[in-house]
Amino acid sequence: MQAPATPSIIRREHEALRAVLRCMTRMMREARHHRHVPDFGALRAMLFYISEFPERRHHVRESAMLFPRLRTVAPEAGALLDRLHQEHGQGERRLRDLEHLLNAWELLGESRRAAFELALERHTTFYLAHMQAEETEVLPLAERCFQAADWIVLDRAFGSHGDALAEHSPDAEFEALFHRLRQVMRVGESLRA
Fold this sequence. Notes:
By secondary structure, the protein is an all-alpha fold.
């Protein structure tokens, strides 16, 4: 049997999200260090990416397809899968809160910076721990328990994401977003040097 694509797709999508979160963190650190405001448009683009891809595509497929299949072959993972599914449900609210805090900072000024920075730090910590659990617990269990038929269905579903940051072919409507994100992330990488 050919190796299933889903685990590597999930890991690439997680790495794309990690890269976006690291870029946001670097932008915030640099802005604070140089005592200026960051590029609010770039931060909004990154939050929009997180909403459109990890939240509305990646997590939906995990919760609707991966987790239920895994629950049937590995019932002992039920509590873990319940927790991760619940965390998926919290993601959209957390993003809306971050977007609100970013808008407040941009529109109301410096007095709102700390609230956004703290929320971004918490959101990043939350996401990193969530992805860690999926990569170290869920995926290895799936790799041990699933049969070829399971992987065929999952590979088809996970292969259709359109997340260019995770090396998929992007949907045409997202070309401008991915172009913007690549520019921002190149600048973010140069901040690290």
